[in-house]
Every structure is written in C-alpha cells, then in structure tokens.
Amino acid sequence: MTGSGGGQESPGAAAEGASLAHRPVLVGVGASSASVDAVERFVSAMPPSPDWATILVPSHREAFDEARFRAAVDELAGLRIERVEEGAAPAAGTIYLCDPDLILTIKEGRFNTRQAEEAPGHRGTIDSFLVSLAEDQDERAIGVVLQGTGGDGTLGVATLKEHGGLAIAELGPDERPDGAVTGMLPAALADFVLPAEQIPERIAAHVRQLTTRKEAEHSRKEAEQVSAALGRIASILRNKTGHDFHGYKSGTFMRRVRRRMHVLGTATVDGYIELLRREGEEVQNLFNDLLIGVTKFFRDKAEFDLLETRVVPGLFDNKTAADQFRVWVLGCATGEEAYSLAILLREHLAKRDEAPKIQIFATDIDVRALAAARAGRYASSIAADMTPERLARWFVKEGDTYCVVKELREMCIFSSHNVTKDAPFSRLDLVSCRNLLIYLDSALQSRVIPLFHFALRPGGFLFLGNSENVTRHGKLFEPVERRSRIFRRLEGGGRTTPEFPITVSGAYRPSNVPPAPRAARPEGLLERRAERIVERFAPAYVIVNAQFEIVHFSGPVGPFLGPMSGTATLDLLKLVHRDLRADLRAAIRHCAQQDGPVEVDGVHFQLEGRDALVQLFVSPVQDRPDAPRHFVVVFKDGVVRPPSGYVPLSGPGTPRDERIERLEADLAAKSERLQATIEELESTNEELTSSNEEYQSLNEELQSANEELETSKEELQSINEELNTVNSELAHRVQELTTKTSDLKNFLESTQIATLFLDNELRVTNFTPSVKELFHLIETDIGRPLTDIRSRIAVDDLFHDIGKVLRTLSTVERTVKDDAGDASYIARVLPYRSVDNFIAGVVVTFTNVTLLTRAEAALRRSEARFRAIFDSAA
After folding, report:
1. Contact (Cβ atoms closer than 8 angstroms) between residue 632 and residue 528
2. How many C-beta atoms surround the C-beta of residue 655 within 10 A?
3. Which of 160, 483, 816, 825 has a 20 to 30 A CA-CA distance from 277?
4. Residues 6+ apart with CB under 8 A from 461
5. Mean pLDDT, to the nearest integer, of 718-746?
C-alpha cells in the first residue's frame, strides 16, 4: 500500500500532474501468436480514434501472422499500426507492434527494447511488458490478456492489481461468464473476464472514469458517510462471501470502499450498498480490493538472517529422515514469503546427513493471489532481493521474469484458509504471519495470537512482521532477541485451547465520531442504592457479590476488617475479624435464602484487648432486575464492655437477676447459632454425598468413553498403516512412471523423427521437438486444435488422410514438401491405440527424406541421360 503525504503541492509537481493528464492511457494486450481471430475481434470493437494507445504483445512474435492482422486493421477507420521504436512515446489511437526477437518494456512513458536472449516460447514476453507497464503507469495502466497464452501474463495481471491498474482477461467461447476460474491462468486474477469484443467498451468506461475520479477523492462528507456505513458493508460481505471484515481496520476498509465507488461512478454510499446487495459481482470485486498482497522475497533481511543463523538450525535438531518439518505461512499472497522460507530450509537441509521431509502450508483467502503463487513467476526486480547465487540456484530466467524451480514448488502447498473461521494447522515447527495482523484491530489480534500457540509444537517459533508484536501475550511467547520479531513458544501455561471460529464485533465506529463514554460501572449504581439503605445507620459498610468478594468499601471498616498473611484477597470472610466470621457467614446465607434483610444483634468480638459489641445488618441489592445480586453488609458499633475479668459488686445499682438474664440470652443466641451451623453442615454433607455419587457415575461413563476411544485409536492406527502402505506403493508407482516417461521422452528426442499426437477432435496432445520445424508449436499449444496452428507444409491433404485413418483405422503414407519446396517428408498417419485397445486419436510422423529424394531425382536424371546416349548410339 502506498500513502499520500500532506502539505502543499509544489509547482513542479503540479506541472508533472498536468503533463500526465495529457498523456494517453496505455493498454497492453497480450495474445497468443496463433489466436489472430481473438485479436481481430478485439480491434474491430475499438471506437474510432480511441483515447488510449494499444501495445500488442504476442507470446510468440515469430509465429504471429502480421499480414493478416494488418489487413484486418486497415478495414477500420481511425486506427493505424506503427512499429515500436526505441525511446518513442506512445500516441493515442495507435496500435503498436514490436519486432521479433525483442523484449519490450515501458519506462517513464517511453518504449524500451532489448534483444531477447532466450529461445522463443521461454521469454515471458507478456509478463515482461505488463509488469513494466504497471510499475511505470500505476493506476493509468490497463492490461488485457487474451486466451491461449498459458501462464504468460499471470505475473503481469497480479502486478497491475497491486499498482491500482485495471486487468482484463478474455472469456473463451465455451466458458460461462459466471464460471469460476482457477489455476495459474491470468483470468484467475483479472478484474474482469469478458469476450474479446466487449473488452474495448470496458476500457473506454475506465478511461472516462480516470478523468473524473480525482474530484471526489478528497470529499470529507463522503468519507464520513462511508465510515458510518462500514458495519453494514462488512455484514453484506460476510453474508455473501463467508469472510467477516468487522475486525478489519476501519481506515483501510474505508479507502477500499471509496475506490470501488469511484470506479463505478456511484454518488452515494447508500446507492453503493444497494448495488452490493443486488449484484454479487461487485461484492467479489470489493472483496478482492480488500485483500492486500504487498510482499517480496526475504523482506526484512535482518530478521531472515536471524532466522537462518539462530532459529532454523535448532529446529532441525533431533530430526531424522522419518520426521516431518512443518511450516505454516499465513497471508502468503503471491508466494514470495513461502518460497523465501523454502529456500532457507533447503539450503540448511543440504548441510545435513539426514534430511526430514519439509512441508510448507501457505494459505490466504485470496484465491487469485494463490493462483499467482502456484505459477511461481516473478518480475526481474527480485534480483535485488537476494544474492546472485540464490537467484541462479532457485530460479529459471524467462525473458524479464524468473520462475521458481520445481523443487521449491513441490515443497509448498497453497490453499485457501481464513484464520478467523477455519481450524488452524497443528504440530508446526514454524508459523510465519508477517504483515497480516496489522490489518486487524487490536481486539481481533489478541484472539488470533493464541491460535499460533496452539498450532506450534513445544519449542516452535512464531515469525511476525516489523510492525507486529505479541506484548499482550507474554505468557505464551518470548522474543529470540529483545528487538526481534521472532518469538519462541513458552510452555508455562500448557497447551492453549484455541477459539475458532472467532466471532468479531458487528459494529464500526465512524472515524469522525469521538469514542462513546464508558458505561457506568455496576459498582457505582450499587453504591447509590446501598447508600439509600444505610442512611439511617451511617455506619461502616461493604458491598459483596454472591461469592463474598468485596466490590466496594465505605466508612471506617478498619475495626472489623483487616488483611491476612499470605496471598492478597478481597474475600470478605477471610478479611473480617475472626470473632465475626461465623455470624456473618450465617447472616449472608440466610439473607440469600430468604432474599430479604437479616439483622444480628449483640455480636461479641475482641477490639484491642477489650470486649466489644457490633450489630450486623445484611441486605440484598441489585442495580436492575436482570443484573447479578449483591449484598450490603453493615457494621454498627455497640457499647464497649468492661474487661472480661471484672465482676461488679452486688448492690442496688447492679441487680444480679439482670446480669443472669443477659447471660442466659447470650447462651440462647449462641445455641441458636450453633444449631443453625449444624443444620448447614448436615445439608452441605448431603450435597457432597450426592455430588460424589454423580462424580462416580460420571467417572464410569468417562472410563467407558476412554475404552471406546482406545478402540477407535487402534482402528485409526491400523487404517494409518494401510494408508502408509498404499502411499508407499503409489510413490513407487509414480517413480516407475517418472522413469518410463523420461525414457520415452529421451527415446522420442533421440530418434529425431518429428511426431505429432492428436486426439479424435484433432487437438494437440503431445509432440516431439522436431515437429517445431514443420509447425509453429510451443508448450502452451497443448489442447489447441491443429487447424488453429500455422504450419510450414501443405496440410489440406494431411487433414484428409487423418480423417480417413480415424474412419478406417488403416495406416496412410504421403510425401509432403515444405512451403519453400526445399525439404521432403514422408508423412505416416496411423491410429493411436490405448492399452485397452481404445482408439484415442492419431499419431502423425514426419520422416525427412530430402537427401533420398534428391538422390532419386539425380539417379533418374542420370538414367535418362544414359538412355539418351544409348538410343543415339543405337
């Protein structure tokens, strides 16, 4: 992502912006060399004198039928074809065509060309141009990829999307407009997939939108409206895509929504929401824009160096060839992060005698980025991200692009996965989640990080980006170095049970609205209600919850409460004076049972060595009917009594009978309390007995379930052994098949006989390299009809022979010559029989008999000359 800086624009910048406004929009068109009809349909639908310049880039320029293309363009008014010239600036209303054997790029709005060093078909011609176009023109770049290019164009489409440009792919005649496009083809990443004749209309609409977009970008009112509607938009995305963006950072979310509104020309956010509800295609487009795939190889070199030197060697300790090394890369985007880790691990593996199997799970919710990752093709700019040795060892250069070697691609499994919805992987040695958490709000981050602790093995490592941290989870992870973003899993808390799927908040707060005031604490309402109850007492009091934990103190509670030695606590029954503990416990329980106030008079306790009296008052209190119940405990001072050893004299002022009555009342009160305590203890014992019986029953059920699980475990182990056996057998079969395929490939190439394999619909299924001398074939032509491929020999009679062989299952031979008439071939057509004797097409072989034909012709001429001499002598 790129941001715009503040401040006043300089005159130079304004002049540059004005010059950009007058430059034509550049449209790069990648096409298959043999699909001239698609190019013709695209060009025929272009308006007269369009406002953009079109640069045509065939995948195999040498085989492109330029004469036919020029003839088609000559019939259209207002269009002209020009040759690409080094350093020239493209002009609107012009179609540019590059010369063969050249790699074309764009720099500062001008053409750059260089001589191609690779063989035709291995130059990445389309990707090379589209990548340079995206990097040079940003949002003013438009790329079109027609069918038949194979993987060439995938990287270019991904780069166009990253830089804000528009990417369009052709919809084939046999494909549905709403069909899902998967794999490594450009159509899997494009903004629009349309028939060739509809593409110019979409380009024209986008060019018009580019001229008006800037007027609404800085509208504060629009930003406020969009910000207030983010919650509704996120709900629509969740309902229609299954992915919840409520935890997505609101600033980024708002910018993406406004961009889609500008592209579609929607004036109000309500209108855009109605469009989202009505059209599923726009929901998918917004979803694709929200997915940010900015990454590179070995991003943050210092962190990768630390990973290579201190983390990876330790992770391989005690690993044998029978073990697995498992890695999870979240938010892998187009695969650079996953392949970077694969390179590190493979390089370390080369230093070990025993090599465990490495498995890298690379996941993302963007299936289009995953398609680019599987293709493994990247721009030439990756050369700046790694050493030349690594570049030469792990990549194959094709034009201005690099392809990851097969060895690394086989290590990485790319799949769609949503970290907030899908179950995490487990038993992992390393989790890499770099620059994904920064797009989640803090609440969602705090709930995602424990998933990583669950997924890792003991001693596993978590690799984060430079802007991410786990400071809120210090009990789960510790940094390898103080300033690093590599963290080691801690074992103190045991294995954390993850929360998935993770539910996120369903509301967004508009960015211009101040935070809502915090709701009043329940204790505040309880305080006010408690104060109304104790106004007539004005004593010290506390408020406790149902677990006897103090939530509020008031008044001089010091004589009645005091801290105990040991762990700090707010438990009232542990803080209260021990002489008051039994009476207070009984009073609270009695209050809870009858849900009404309870009063206990004349409770004796020792206060600084003297006897004292206190009156206890307990009353239930709630701030609202559905809130938890609390209790107010009031301590009301009594009269301080004389020391316990003091015996008053008999006399008129101290009648003996009064003293006896008071002692009898005290004895009765204590007997009553003792009886209540005994009844409470008996009730508790009965409950404990009942609970014990329930636990015994539950234990028996658990033992039975455990036995069933043991049986299931044994069955699973047995099935696992069977699967391992089958897997070993399949691996052996695959190895045998690979060997036989290699033998067959080398045999066909060593014969130097041009061989062409066709199915019953005359589609190419395979061919030997020698066939390229007769037909303009490249690897991506597999599956295309032979009738669509340009040839160097006369093929009309050959097609007749092929049809005859398919009808009669006989073998037909014919002598054919090339267009120049210099070479002769014996074309032999025979049916293709499968192992079970099923006719699956034909095999056409071409044997070069040029020397034999020339020798026969020379022999005939010599024979004729000698015959003429003999006849004249006779």
Report:
1. no
2. 11
3. 160
4. 311, 315, 429, 430, 431, 480, 486, 487, 488, 489
5. 77
Spatial distance between the Cα atoms of 795 and 833, rounded to a whole number of angstroms: 23
How many angstroms separate the CA atoms of 411 and 339, rounded? 9
- Whether 50 and 92 have beta carbons less than 8 Å apart is answered as yes
Other C-beta atoms lying within 10 Å of the C-beta of residue 810? 10
Token pair 């034509």 in the structure block, residue: 24
- Contact partners, residue 230, CB within 8 Å, separation at least 6: 250, 253, 254, 257, 508
DSSP string of 522-558, one letter each residue: HHHHHHHHHHHHHTTT--EEEEE-TTSBEEEEES--T
Specify the pairing of strand 25-31 against strand 141-145: parallel
Cβ neighbours of 393 (radius 10 Å):
14
Written as six digits, the tokens of 517 are 């005031």
Count CA atoms within 13 Å of residue 80 on its CB side: 8
Other residues' Cβ atoms within 10 Å of the Cβ of residue 545: 16
**pLDDT tens-place string over residues 402-428:** 889 888 888 888 888 888 777 778 888
Q: Which residues contact 49 (CB under 8 A, 6 or more apart)?
A: 78, 79, 92, 93
pLDDT band at 186 (very low <50, low <70, confident <90, very high): confident
- Please classify residue 301 by burial: count the beta carbons closer than 10 Å to its beta carbon, then call 0-12 exposed, 13-18 middle and 19+ buried: exposed
In 3D space, the residue among 418, 416, 333, 329 whose CA is nearest the CA of residue 369 turns out to be 333
Residue closest to 764 by CA, chosen among 780, 741, 747, 744? 780
Amino acid at 673: R
Phi, psi dihedrals of residue 416, rounded to the nearest 5°: -80, 135
222 vs 319: CA distance, rounded Å: 58
- What is the C-alpha to C-alpha distance for residues 576 and 603, in angstroms, rounded to an integer? 13
**Can you name the residues that pair with 636 across neighbouring β-strands?**
615
pLDDT at position 285 is: 72
Q: Which residues contact 64 (CB under 8 A, 6 or more apart)?
A: 33, 36, 58
Q: Say if CB 753 and CB 849 are below 8 A apart.
A: no
CA–CA distance, 650 with 631 (Å, rounded to integer): 45
Contacts for 268 with CB less than 8 Å, ≥ 6 apart = 225
Amino acid symbol at 694? E
Query: What are the pLDDT digits (tens) for 85-102?
Result: 888 899 888 889 888 778
- Which among 544, 507, 541 has a CA at the least distance from the CA of 522? 544
Beta-bridge partners for 571 = 549
DSSP conformation class of 592: H
pLDDT at 177 (0 to 100): 47
C-alpha–C-alpha distance, residues 492 and 505, integer Å? 30
